[in-house]
Every structure is written in C-alpha cells, then in structure tokens.
C-alpha cells in the first residue's frame, strides 16, 4: 500500500486561542493550602508525639475505674488511689436462704477480692494497643468521652465451697422412715422424716450470678428433698393397738358338750406375735406397714390342738332286713374333722384388728365313706354270705357281759372293698372305763381274774365267720391251751385269741362289695353269732379237719396258798387239759375253681389243774404252782 504525499504550503504556527481570562492567583492559593495542610499535619504529628511522650508511663486522660479518675496517674499512683476505694468484697453481704433460715456471708469471705494490680494494668493499657490507629482512637475516645475500666475481681470458689459445706451440714439430713414399736403393751409411733441434701453445684451457680452484680444479694440454697419410703405409720400403730386391746380367744364353733376349749392368747402373748412387714403402698408410691401376727408363733399356739381336735369320720352302721333286703340305719354316720391351721391363722389375722377377739377355729370336713343315706344296692350288700355261732355255757356273769360288750363293737360294722379288717382296731381299749368287767383270762401261763375275759370268744366267732366267707386270713393265733368252751360248734383248731397290741385277728375283704357285719349275743342261750352280709362272688368253702396229733397228757394237779381261805377250804382255779397239735385245712372255690388253699395250725400246751388252799395246808408231797 502506498501513501501519496501531498505538497504542503509552509506557514508559521498560530498561537492557541484561549477563550477565558487568565487567573494568576490560583497556583498561589493551592500552594498555600497544601502548605497549611502539611504544616497542620506536622503540628498534629508533633502534638501527638508530644502527647505520647508526655503520657509515657502515665494513664491517659479520661480513664476511670468504677468512679475513680486515674487520668495522668502512674500505675503506682493509680494503685494507691484505688486501694481503700473499692470496698465491695468486704462491704457486700451475700445472704444464703433456705426457707426461714438465712446465713449472711461477706463477699470477701466467699473468696471475692479486688485485684488492684490487674485493674491498674487494664487502665494503663487503654490507648496502648500494638495497632497505632487503635491506640489513637482509644486515646481520643478517652479524652472526649471517658473510658471506664471495670475492676478486676478474683473469685476463689474453694472458699465459697467451704462456706457452702458448713451451711449444708446444718441442712442435710437423711430420709427416715416412720416407725412403730411396742413397749410392754404400749404402742409407740414416730413419723417419718423427709431427707434433704444441698445441691452444691446448683447453689454455686446461683452464687456466681449474684457476685457478678457486685452488690448485696440473696442466694437461694438449692435443696433436693427425698421422701422416706414410709412417711406415716399412724394407721399401722392404730392396728397394733386394736390387736392388743384384749386377749384373743379361739373356740370350736357348734361345739359338742365333750369338745374342749376355748383357748386364749393373752395380750402379752399377742404383743410378742405382732409382725410389721413393709409392702408397696396400694394408694400410691412408697411403702406402708402391713400388720399381722407371726404365723410361726400362731402355729406354735395351734399345732398342739390338732391331735386333740381331730375327729375321724365314722361310717353309718346298718342291719340288713332280710324281708325287704334293704339297709336300716342302726347308728348314723359321723362327719370327721381336721383342724385347718393355715386357714385358722388367716382368719385370726383378719379378725385380730377388729373389736371381736373371739375367733372360730376352721376345720376341714371329712365325709364318711358310708353316709346314712347309703343303700344296699350302692354298697353291694344284698345277701347273707356267711354265719358262725359259738357257745359259752358255764361262763360267769363277768365273761358273759364282756362277750356282749365286745360283740357290740362290731354290730353293724361296714368293711370296704379291699379293706383289711383288724379285730383290735374296732374293739378299741379294753378297760373298766370302756365298759368291760373282771373275768377269767389267760395271762403269763395262768388263768387269772382280769379285765376283758371273754373277748376271745368274740374273736373266735369272727374268725369262723371269715373262714366260711372265704376271705384271706392274714393273722390268727390259737390260745395257749385248749379252751373247753369251743368244743361245741366248729371244735378244735378253730379258735382265735387276741391281745392288744401284739396279737390280732386280721382278714381282707378281697371282693368288690362292702361287707356288713352283724353280731348277736344271746345271753339266755349263751350263744354268740356273727353274720356277714355282702354279695356272693360265687365262692364256696370246704373245711377239712381238724387233724389232731402230738397229744401230751397234762401233769398232776398243782397247789398254791391263798390267805383268804380257811383251813379245810379248797378252790380250783385252773382245770386240767391235755396238750395237742391240730390242723384245719380250708379250700376256697370260686365257680368251681380253687381260689385259695390254706392250713391253720394250732399247738396247745398241756395244762394242769390248780387248787388253792389255806396257808400251810398244801398236801404233803403235792407239787406247788409256780411262785409258791
């Protein structure tokens, strides 16, 4: 690209045209202003430098410490000025309050004191920041408006903690449960105590807030209260007083004339039995006392009554009406009873706090197996299955009476299916108190007068009835020597003696039917009959024997002296009988099949006649009875 140059005409430059009037003073003014500014800044700098130099080591003007002007003072002068002026720690009272109880303490005693050195240092450091502009700004603010320095307080919490511990020692207390105690017959009740424990941390927080206000103040002592488990035992005490108000009596309800009782526990005994147990309060939190009488001690009071109050149930006794084939009540049944000790204890504890201190004993009722309402059909008593009769011609009045008395013990008796019959059990005690009389008995190798002579006539008859009923005979004993009464009837080897508690007659009703025993003592004809009623299961009995062997002749008559006899008188007290062995076999059939086979062996010793004569009148050479 080419640029064409144009010819130019040479001319003289024209001066620039100015359209306003020239002001020659402006530069001068500018110079003056700049000079003034420079000069003023220089003066200010000089003044500032002089200000700094002047107050070097002095507190800047306008600085005050809680009303005390420390401007222009050295730290030492300021410290001197402040000492004695700041009286807050010693003149200020902090009052701790717990309800109506107050503990005034000075702030100084709580560990608060004025740190003069640190306060003066804070005042001196105003306007002396490492940053120059910040320093000048602080100096200017202090000079124009003033600069207030808060005093530096030192708070030693250990001192406050020690004072609070002393206060807490007067406030703290444990929670104590209400109590009930017995002194003699006096019941003493003490109320519970609420536990109180000072919360030191929370109380110190309240104290800190008060101290920072730098004036008198009140600090609420924070107390944590703990209620006792049992606050009030008044109700329990009233219950104990009710228990001890009078003696407690237990008695048999609807007592029979022969029943014992009542029995009494004295107030003093009840006081020994009172038991207080802690249980949850059913109406709220905490616990209450449950008052009762000690069960172990009540057991000791009641347990001895158990055997004497026990009454065995007694089955009804019947006779079988052969015409109607129904049972007729001979003796009503008796309901048994057993003292229910736990239930009685429960009732005593229920009634002991009440005004009624007569507590009926609680019994468990034991129903008899055979009540009055039992029928022949229900029991399986439908027919006569066995009968036996023995004879006692020539027996004395005492023996006859004893036979009738003993036989009556078995009249109408019911034996359950599977039950073992025990003659001694149903006979009971043989004594004059139970209706027996003196009669001849065999004792210690002699026939002597004794209570109950003739009872073996009854056991012999019962044995023969059981023999022919086909029942298993579990125990049977023959007499020591043969008794002539039993020659009539079944004869030798068919007797059975008893002697409580070693010698018994026992057999088992091994049928599914009840057994009814009827006894009939015919004193006029001197016969005793046992009748067994039940239901035949098809069994029959075959007797074989008796087989007699080993006959031993009796020895010569024996003599003994009796001072009650006169010379020439003689009384025979034992009668001679030969000794021998006898065996009776029994076969029990049922529906033609052998059910049992057993043999009854009897061994009878020889027995000598015994005569009594007057003293000195035993015939010469005659043998004496044993012991004479």
Task: Describe the overall structure.
- The protein is of the alpha+beta class and 628 residues long.
- It is 27% helix and 30% strand.
- The protein is built from 16 helices and 36 strands.
- Strand 17 (317-321) and strand 18 (326-331) form a beta hairpin.
- Helix 2 (75-82) packs across helix 4 and helix 14 crosses helix 16 (455-469).
- The longest helix has 29 residues, at 26-54.
- The chain is rod-shaped and about 195 Å long.
User: Taking strands numbered 1, 2, ... along the chain, how are they ordered across the largest sheet?
Assistant: 22-30-29-23
Percent helix? 25-40%
| Secondary structural class | alpha+beta
Main sheet specs = 4 strands, antiparallel
Low-confidence stretches: 1-21
The count of β-strands is 36
Q: Looking at the structure, what is the overall shape?
A: rod-shaped
Report the span from N to C terminus.
195 Å
- Mean of pLDDT: 88
How many separate helices?
A: 16
What is the CA-based Rg, rounded? 64 Å
Q: In percent, how much strand structure appears in the residues?
A: 25-35%
